[in-house]
Every structure is written in C-alpha cells, then in structure tokens.
C-alpha cells in the first residue's frame, strides 16, 4: 500500500506533465521551457514562455506554476516569490494552473486585496484542457523526458555526485559479493580454520543474503584471533581487502573517465562515494580535489571526495578504514551526528544530487533520503523531485511479460519518488557514460534510450 505522500508526488508529476503537453500543443510557435531558472538561480518556474502564447493572450515572459491543489498559503507564497521578478521585468505575467481550489473564500479575498493583473488563475479541466487532445496514457517512464531536465539542473544548480559500487565495477573491481567471497579465502587459517570461499553461497543463504550480515561474518573471522593484537588483526583485514581490490596495476573505466570529465567541466559542491577504492581520487589528484575518509579539516578552495564507507588506498602507507560489516552500519545508524551522515544530509538539503552506480538498496542511504525528504513534507517543495538516480532497466527473472516488467518499473519510480528522486533509466551499462556526457555538456549528442 502506497503512502499518501507517494501518491501526491505521482499525482503532481503526472499533472505537471499533462500541463506541459497542453502548453506544447497550444504554443506552436513559441518556446516552452521546463524548470526555467529565474532571478539568478533563486527561483525555478515550472514552465516559462519566452514568446508568450497568443491563443491564450499570454504575453512574452509568462511564467507558469502548476499546482494540484491551490490554497491561500500556497498562492501567497508563490506571489511573494514572483513579485521581485515582475518588478525586474523578468516575468510579465504569472499563470497558475490548478485542478482544485481549497479555502476558496480566503483565497478570493486575498486575490482581491492584491488588485493586480499580474496573476491569472486557471482551472485546468474547465478553462484550458483541449478536449480534442488525446490523453497520453503511456507509462510515466516512457513519456517524461527527464534527461534534459537533469542537464538543466546540472548546469544551473549547485550539485553533488553520489557514487556507488557500479562505478568501481565498471573498472572491473570486484562486486560486494565477490569481495566478501574473496575475504573467506583461507590464508594461514585466517579468517577461519575450515570455512573458505567454497562455502560463501551457503553462508550467504544461511544469513538471508544480507551483505552487511555476511560482511560481519567475514570480518569477525579476522578480528577474533587471540594470537595477535587487535591492531594487527585490523591491519591484516585491511590488507586482505586491499589485495582483493587491487589485483591489477592499471584500471580503465569509461564511466570513471566520464565522471572525471563532468566534475572538471563544472565543479560540484562535493563528491560522496560509497566505494573503498581511490581510482577516481587518483584521476582528480592535483585538480582541486582531495580525499576524506574521516573527520578532517576542510581545505580552502578544494573540493572534498567523501568516502563515507571508508577508503583503502593502493598506497599502503596511507591510513585506511572500512565500513563493511553489520556492526559498522549500526555505528552509523546510532549516531545521527556521525560525520558521514552529516555530509550526506547536508548535500541532500543544499544541492541537486545525482546518484550513479547504485542499486538503491543500502538501508542507511535510504534512511537518510527519507529523513531529508521529511523537511519538504509541509512545504511547497513537496511536489518537487529535486534529485536524480540512474537505474538499469533490468527485466524481472522468470517468465515475466512485458506488462509485468512495465508495472514493476513504474513501481520502482513510485518508490524512488518517495525519496525525492527522478529516475533516469538506461538499458545497458555502456549507455551510462554517454548519458553522463550529455547531461554534463561534454557532448550535445542526446542518447537514444
């Protein structure tokens, strides 16, 4: 059962797209810009008509705000936001399009008190909707052109990159499950005397296929050895992870290169990575970036790469740490002021975030996204989806039909909207660098997905 919030996100999203379809159909000779940045980036109009719309007698520089339910507090807030744009002649008319009006008497009295022709209100169904326009009932996955919106946000807002395991796997580093399996390999009866990597599948099954519980199981085998000091056990564990991660001398990844080009083209507020490796760090070394894997003093005029789950450098002389096991995750959960939680929440609150290389199943990550979304619950921003996640459109296993898969992908979008995330779907991992190159402005060749 979906929450009311999830339903409202989807309703607002669908309605805004429907209004966009309508505007495109009636403003045939004019430009309809979506999510237009105004007043030096302080305000974003849902739509902006540079040449206006002659069939509706809307003049050039008309801004459009879309609201499912219009009430006194929302229109008051919108008016106060747009008044400076009207005075600066950046907007000549504000059109508010809605489905329903709430608190009608208060709203009417407020409009009368303004005594202005700057604002016009339209009931979409009664006043605007073209009855001959065939309603597009396709999945929102297929009809929302979210890539261009992401490109605009990348260019015009402060942004943060969140990077997950998919980034490192593109460089042929081991996956999470492969890392855990390799950690069970015996070496001088470490981590266990009899258990080894041949038992990893059975162990994962016995532990409910939970990666963090399996991580605890593997790490405990190293840390409980009483024949060595605790520090020695930790170092052996870290060294084993390093050996598993860095089997090769050189690593090539078109995705990591695309990320590197994107952040050099336009500097982010920060990069937040869940990966242990330092492949991206080395590419960006001496280019105004620096690595952080714990509480550190910020560097002036340099951009942090936060390793919120720890970092294990190829250089074994550098300090290393890891968040791998259930115990490590519990430490993150229990302390809301943990530096890793703080930097992630700050990024979600203050910037447009792009999530690359994630399956979106990390429990702490989902908790932080939900917590960040709570602040928008009672504000005008609740109808906005401020962030983006790149997800592979993987069909369900078995004999799932096309209709079943489409419904599943729709449901994934509903779920991600709860976290304030727009989904950018891709079919093959080779598409991901191309999409990123387009969004970051490296190329103008829009990928056909």
TrEMBL record:
Pfam families, per database record: SIR2_2
Superkingdom of source: Bacteria
Protein name per Swiss-Prot or TrEMBL: SIR2 family protein
Originating organism: Bacteroides caecicola
